Amino acid sequence: MFSTAMLGVAVGLTVPLVTRAIIDGPVTRHEIDLLLPLALLALGLSISEVLLVWARRWAQSRAVSDLEAALRNDLYIRLQALPMEFHSRWQSGQLLSRVTADLSTIRRFMGFGLLFLVINVLQLVVVTILLLRLYWPLGIVVLVAAAPIIVVSLKFEKKYLAISRRVQDQQGDLATRIEESAVGFRVIKAFGRREHVKQQFNGGAVKLYDTSVDKVRLASRFWTFLEVIPNLTLVIVLLLGALAVGREAITLGTLVAFITLMLSLIWPVESLGTILAMAQEAMTSADRISEILDTESTITDGPDELVNPRGHLRFEHVSFRFSPDSADVLRDINLDLPPGTTLALVGATGSGKTTLTSLVPRLYDVTGGRITIDGHDVRDLTLKSLRTAVASAFDDPTLFSMSARENITLGRPDASEADVQQALEIAQATFANDLPWGLDTRVGEQGMSLSGGQRQRLALARAVLARPAVLVLDDTLSALDVHTEALVEEALRNVLAATTGIVVAHRASTVMLADQVALLENGTITHVGTHAELLATVPAYRTLLAAEEEEVHA
Amino acid sequence: MTTTQQTPPQSSTDQPAAQQDSWRGYAEEGNDELSRATTVRLKEQSRKLLGELLRPYHKLIWLLVVIVVVENAARLAVPYLVHLGIDKGIPPILAGEGSKTLLTVVAAVFASALIQAAARWLFLMRSGRLGQTILLGLRRRVFDHFQRLSPSFHDKYTSGRVISRLTSDVDVIDEMLETGFDGLVTALLTLIGTSVLLLTLDVKLGLLALLSFPALFLLTAWFRRRSAIVYRRTREAVVLVIVHFVESMTGIRAVQAFRREPRNEEIFWGVNDKYREANLESFRINAIFMPSIKGVGNITIVAILAYGGWQAYHGHVTVGVLTAFLLYLRQFFEPLQDISQFYNTFLSASAALEKLSGVLNEKPDVAEPVQPAQPTKARGHLQLRNVQFSYVDGVAVLPGLELDVPAGQTLALVGTTGAGKTTIAKLVARFYDPTGGHVMLDGIDLRKLTEDDLRERVVMVTQENFLFTGTVADNIRFGKPDATMDEIVEAAKVIGAHDFIMALPDGYETPVAKRGSRLSAGQRQLVAFARAFLADPAVLILDEATSSLDIPSERLIQRALRTILDDRTAIVIAHRLSTVETADRVIVLEHGRIIEDGTPADLITTGGNYAGLHQAWEDSLA
Ligand SMILES: Nc1ncnc2c1ncn2[C@@H]1O[C@H](COP(=O)(O)OP(=O)(O)OP(=O)(O)O)[C@@H](O)[C@H]1O
Ligand SMILES: Nc1ncnc2c1ncn2[C@@H]1O[C@H](COP(=O)(O)OP(=O)(O)OP(=O)(O)O)[C@@H](O)[C@H]1O
Ligand SMILES: [Mg+2]
Ligand SMILES: [Mg+2]
């Protein structure tokens, strides 16, 4: 690619020389016979230049678009592998702007900028050498003129780098606002906060505007400078050159060729400004992208496979904190769930139930102690086998805008129709068959075209269908009416009999699904026992689950 | 367009390409519908939008044009002056008559260089700022328009598309404004200026040079036609990338827990590859276009060289004229190269503009009234008169609902899941307009109320409580943007969120992180509740607002509700009947029909459906 580029430049440069030959030969010295061959030579050169440019661009287009797509794919793969901790820390818009805007910036630079940069610099060097050879005193003038350009370019580069990074970050912030305003649209609507959100968006947009204008200001100064210098040099060259012709130090033809060549420098120098700016932006974009690509995933595969898991789940002195400098959310948790048993986890709002359950499939890693399945520390297992063995229905049903079937079979793509139907039965989610296109109906973004209870039941069906060794149900019946809830519980009883289960519950009826109940208080398990035992002996438990306040005292 | 098929289409041709992948499932048509209209209309729309965007600045734009003319005049003067210097300045020196002419010419070149620089600087500054101003205006406008459109639009359009319109599309326009504008204007002027100069320098040579114009014109026309198609495709392809990306990142927890990664990668690779192909094609069109322009330029130069050399040989033109000619041609064709680059960004921006104008032309289904009613002070009397509603044609969710809620009443809606409770709430909050009948507040049809009037009176806590990036206080303040910190704390105290908030590392100033993931499900619900409480509307709708709370927290809220709801109309939707028991009236809903209606106590004694529910609920408790 580069060789065709070089060849192109070389050919482009010989044309002025042929011009000189024509002016000096046929015109000045009246050697008309040379006109035709020289003209044909020029024509041949010109056409080959075009062909070379075409060939180079053609090859380049594939390389560049492949590179962009591959980078985007890498980013996506990396992001999917990065743990929850990363994702709750990073703004969604910042991720998005890296995958779209930053990659296009790089593509643009690779597609046009980089080559022009190389070509331009090359052209500058070659032309300067030619100029020196044509008539060195004038060549020196041109060479001297290059000094301020280099100095200013370097200064500009540093400033521009900082400012384009700021623009990109602000674009990411704005993208976050946009994303939230789109996803949270219904809340904004429900509260009639259009103006408020608009103000916030305006704030971000105006900030971006200000920075962009700063960028424009910086670039304008630089670009103007790049245009002034060659023109001023031309003034000097013209003056000195004419005098030299006067002294007959050079021929008129040489001066013409010299000036022609020099003028061919103006455009490369001028466009150097734009290209350098492009290069800076591509550099900051690359930085932003490598911030993600270089993030080490803290939750990675262990060496062991879990074959035919029985689902013996143990928590051994488990403690957990979200960040190293915060307090423990969970501490010294000890639980033993032999295969087939079900544990109900009861605790106040915010006591850490969800956190505890998300440690099992390693959405987070324990910060102390260990969790084992069938005797294997979960960190020693491959993520695939661990997450096949453990399935969860979360406290918010995360659905995707895919067909209902695809949503249900998320954890087990090869499930048969009968399996799907059975899971739907258990979750009381057979309504899905009655959707306009049955199970092939798209459920809308985040399942928005379903009712709250319907969403929850689909999420439940999904967990059940995965046939896990360990089933985690995190308050998954909260959006169901009592009758439906009773039906689901009845069906779940059979499922839970066959697997190890953790059921997070706020209601006694759900607790009844379990063999044992663990009470989570102040970040640790304070009591374990059957529902009846705890109800009778633990006042805190009674407060959490009793129907009437009075009963506590009764 | 294909709409509302009730069976999966037999031939995939009924469905737009994006929907052929079976995993996406079928949905009612909508989506990028906008792009499918005829090209002519699209072009017209986007041109109109461009006009609207530029109109406020037409004075500045004229000024810019003047500046550019000056700049280019100065720029073009340089080769002409060089020609003067060589033709008129050097002979006197050779003849030993001094260098006065030469010095004058050199001074003139110097002057034009300075003028050119000044004009260029002014132009870059001014046009750069103008571009950013236009962009800011465009961003605001599209953002606001999206917020004005109705939920039914957003249901179909999806957030990923909204995001890509406001990021990727706007970015493309930004790129044009940053580079394209300048280049395009300069190019056009250079084109005109140079042709005039060429003709004045030497008519014959000039005409010969102008022969290249038809070729350039044809090339450009071809390029424009092809690019328009490709760039439209690019815009559509990038949307799919963004949609899929946003969704996988939003649902990352489920993705990881259910090992969805490999499948997602496959899908992402698919959409990413489509985008790549579109990009590749636009690259390729450029790869043909740009060298061709250069080719035309080269051939013209050679022709001039040959013919001009011949003419000079015969003394018909001077060497100076020939030199100037060649210089001008160079100046003419060199930028043309890069113009094609600028033109390229311009065409790409046009495609984006088409998309944006498509969005801006969408009208909200739930329209603002032309002649809004002047509501008196809100009392909160709700009436639903024979209200019919369906999301999908032919599947009625509410077949005909009659409901009268006197001001100040607390009404509980219960019923099996999917019965239509949330739907009623959404109709009262005017997320949708009923397909038949009327929803009225204080005797005024909601369709006659302005959005502001309505939102001031009716506030809904939705089943899915969404928190925004920001602090806990920010999120509560969302209910009332001008609330003081004291009011916020007060609201949190009333609904029992104060304690947990104070336990957070920075109290009310703790950031809740993306979507509130820093908080537990129950905590999120409390914050959402506090913000509704702070909004203090005449009609409050609570849709499953306490479903994730533990019983003590719920009880606390219930007690608070008794005072909060005392003087206002409320619709409470709950499966936990403890909340319902505090209501003045209960309605049991089944398949969108009211099957029972009365006070909680009455309904229990008459022993119907509600009594059954109540019994089951009692049994479910310890
Ligand atoms: N990403 C996080 N970073 C820091 N703290 C967190 C994060 N997520 C949750 N917490 C805190 O950890 C505690 C436990 O949260 P968790 O979601 O486990 O509660 P929970 O028992 O599931 O409550 P609920 O019944 O409301 O769902 C809460 O006090 C919460 O504020
Ligand atoms: N945006 C939508 N598009 C299409 N159908 C919808 C949409 N929203 C709801 N539905 C359907 O309308 C019916 C009523 O839904 P609605 O949300 O009103 O139920 P609900 O009574 O609130 O149930 P839940 O107690 O589960 O929240 C359901 O069958 C649901 O699938
Ligand atoms: Mg939870
Ligand atoms: Mg609902």
3D architecture notes:
The complex is a heterodimer of chains A (554) and B (622). Chain A has helices spanning 2-28, 35-81, 84-89, 92-134, 136-183, 185-191, 194-246, 252-293, 353-359, 383-389, 404-408, 417-426, 452-465, 482-498, 508-511, 531-537, 539-545, 549-553; strands at residues 313-320, 330-337, 342-347, 368-373, 376-377, 390-393, 470-474, 500-504, 516-521, 524-529. Chain A is built from 18 helices and 10 strands. In chain A, 64% of the residues lie in helices and 10% in strands. Chain A is an alpha/beta fold and 554 residues long. Chain B has 3 domains: 43-202 and 344-363, ABC transporter type 1, transmembrane domain (ABC transporter transmembrane region fold, Up-down Bundle), CATH 1.20.1560.10; 206-316; 382-620, 3-Layer(aba) Sandwich (Rossmann fold). Chain B contains 20 helices and 10 strands. In chain B, a hairpin with a 2-residue loop joins strand 9 and strand 10. In chain B, helix 2 (58-94) packs antiparallel against helix 10 and helix 7 runs antiparallel to helix 9 (261-313). The interface between A and B is large, with 201 and 197 residues. Bound molecules: adenosine-5'-triphosphate (2 copies) and magnesium ion (MG) (2 copies).
Structure in a nutshell:
Chain A is of the alpha/beta class.
**Major β-sheet strand ordering of chain B:** 6-7-8-3-9-10
CATH secondary-structure class of the largest domain in chain B: Alpha Beta
Number of helical runs of chain A?
18
Give the biggest beta sheet of chain B: 6 strands, mixed
What order do the SSEs of chain B take from the amino end to the carboxyl end, as H and E?
A: HHHHHHHHHHEEEHEEHEHHHHEHEHEEHH
CATH C-level class of the largest domain in chain A? Mainly Alpha
**Number of DSSP helical runs of chain B:** 20
Q: What's the CATH architecture of the largest domain in chain A? A: Up-down Bundle
Q: Ends of chain A: how far apart?
A: 87 Å
